[in-house]
Amino acid sequence: MTAATHSTLFPQVPESADAVLDGLDPEQREVALALAGPVCVLAGAGTGKTRAITHRIAYGVRAGILQPTTVLAVTFTNRAAGEMRGRLRQLGATGVQARTFHSAALRQLQYFWPKAVGGALPRLVERKVQLVAEAAARCGVRLDRNELRDATSEIEWAKVTQTVPADYPAAVAKTQRDAPRDPAELSQIYAMYEQLKRDRSVIDFEDVLLLTVGILQDRHDIAEHVRTQYQHFVVDEYQDVSPLQQRLLDLWLGDRDNLCVVGDASQTIYSFTGATPDHLLNFRTRHPNATVVKLVRDYRSTPQVVHLANGLLRQASGRAAEHRLELVSQREKGPEPSYTEYADEPAEAEGTARRIRDLIAAGVPAGEIAVLYRVNSQSEVYEQALADAGVPYQLRGAERFFDRAEVREAGVALRGAARAGGNDSLLDGAEGLPSEVRAVLSTKGWTSKPPNGSGAVRDRWESLAALVRLAEDFEQAKPGATLSDLVAELDERAAAQHAPTVQGVTLASLHSAKGLEWDAAFLVGLTEGMMPIAYAKTDEQVEEERRLLYVGVTRARFHLSLSWALSRSPGGRGGRRPTRFLNGLRPGSTAFGARGGAGGGGGIDRGTGTGTATGSGGSGAARPRRRGPVLCRVCGKTLTEAGEMKLMRCEDCPSDMDEGLYERLRQWRADRAKEIGQPAYCVFTDKTLMAIAEAVPDTEGELVVIAGVGNRKLTRFGADVLAICAGRTLEPESGAGDDDM
């Protein structure tokens, strides 16, 4: 036998059942030996849960306790099912079925349909989006591609939560779900979609589960047939089961209890798809005699990474937090997690790229490094920074930024507008490059306010918003730049990022990183509004965001970097705060409302160009100081948008702004910005100038309360502004000597 046969690529099959248990830790061994009755394995990140359950199955088969053909192991992805089958084969346990819920159900449905219903199983719809589009059209609703994806996702959620069309609006209200459209409208589309499927005798992916459940409920003879075939069940990632999947599992089991479930409530991050940890958390209630084993020995991450992960969960609240697992690292000590604050997003991306380049130079393979972010639209600046640094990369779970359909469409529209120049009516009234870009992209779905929900429409908007921000930054870097200049810049960026890569740094969203691990993980963009995401409104939604960060932290084996930027673009105001989830964990912060808060190791760096060090946790408290609502001074409506709050009125409410004063303020700002060598918005933003021109303050007290002014700018620019508001002419030397403040 060659040496290669003994390698990890070709491991030897254990010689006996007892040999299957070799190498298991005490808790994993307990799982492997618990072959009777209900078993619940609570397995933390990196604790070897797949190893434990595959060795459990293999030991039972090799010892003659389990017949392989009577065991059904189910999980959630084809990749996980394939990995399980491979491990079982290596352990000598062939013949065991390891499948996804849908795969197992479809197999049963195909077999029993002729007997239960008669004839052939209806055709499975491969692309339900097309049918949803037709259903929407029949309801008189026009949906674009991204709106169709969101409507389809809502229908899928309704079906896996066993919600019929008529009950959908009530279910949305009860769960506080942020529906992408009016629930009543979606309910109509859902009902029409179901009608079209019936008319055409087709079924969708969710129907596979629903129909299997229906047959097993109605035909006791078929249910008994299935229960005779499968007598032992193992369910991986049990925290992610939906109500429909749980119903199917109950029907498979019948009145038996030969069930082993494995999960971790602290890794529940897919509730928007219908997943719920309730079944895992209620397991002991449903099965009072269950054997419960906790796997807490973390073989993946260093003690430093594990310490931070535990600290995140100590500050959590809610039911999942009550069942958290305290991990214990089994690895040697490693470097402390690094916390880095940058002045702006480009600096954060460039600093991250430099650190990655240094790691690669030190011997860490590029394929063992990941950059993880909250939303896919964040990838562009990191794609650019890594390309500029000569570091190969690959995207997981998303297209490259410039390959995305909406970005390509936007590029075509911008190129057309650039060619037309002044002949394009779209650009009428648009002054300056950013305004022109906003005007063009408004035809592609960009709006000043983000859409509701967190689906495809929001993803598209985020991509277009990233292009708007890029245009703003480009104009600041190159005053006077034209639309043609921007198009050329976009072409250059796209070309630089289309280089083929085989082995490279992984760029991925936190959701798509679940189940993966790397030697080094860079968690970036960790600011309030991004982590937790702005549309996480309820306590439970915020806690799911915390769990998402926990999943990201536990992807790192050795090197862990956490970073944030104080402003979006160079020269910005720097008003952002690092995520509240790091309060009490990062150096210099304090935990508010923490339960047994942990001190975080490591130090805090300040990236290139940052100003002050990270402040105390007061600025990032989980519950910021409440203020009264800001009301529109014209119509009295509560204001929520930052720009409207600056103006103290709705954008579309009539303005009483002094146009002449506004123009004088703009001219003064341009002169002042040139004098101090900073972008104009660093003096005052357009919105602040508009608010000043509307309020026409007479005193410092009236000026300082205008949003965007504040004490520092009052000291620096207040005398000039009040003089302009009073109609006085400024002396040429006015404001001199302030450049170093």
List the helices and strands and how they pair.
Layout: H1 17-20, H2 26-33, E1 39-43, H3 49-62, E2 71-75, H4 78-90, E3 97-100, H5 101-116, E4 123-124, H6 128-138, H7 145-160, H8 168-175, H9 183-200, E5 202-203, H10 205-218, H11 220-229, E6 232-235, H12 243-253, E7 259-263, H13 278-281, H14 283-286, E8 291-295, E9 297-298, H15 303-314, H16 319-322, E10 328-329, E11 338-344, H17 345-361, E12 369-373, H18 379-388, E13 393-396, H19 405-420, H20 433-441, H21 456-477, H22 483-496, E14 505-509, E15 518-523, H23 539-553, E16 556-567, E17 604-606, E18 630-631, E19 638-639, H24 642-647, H25 659-676, H26 686-695, H27 700-704, H28 710-725
Parallel strand pairs: 1-7, 1-8, 2-3, 2-6, 4-5, 6-7, 9-10, 11-16, 11-17, 12-14, 12-15, 13-14, 15-16
Antiparallel strand pairs: 18-19
Helix pairs in contact: 2-3, 5-10, 6-7, 6-9, 10-11, 10-12, 15-23, 17-18, 19-22, 20-21, 25-26
Rg value: 29 Å
> What spatial form do the alpha-carbon principal axes imply?
globular
Helix content: 40-55%
Task: Extract low-pLDDT stretches.
Answer: 1-10, 496-502, 593-602, 609-628, 733-741
Distance between the termini: 76 Å
Which sheet architecture does the biggest sheet show? 7 strands, parallel
Strand content: 5-15%
Average pLDDT confidence is: 82
Order the strands across the largest sheet as they lie in space: 13-14-12-15-16-11-17
Write down how many β-strands occur, each being a DSSP E stretch of 2 or more residues.
19
Structural class: alpha/beta
Alpha plus pi helix count: 28
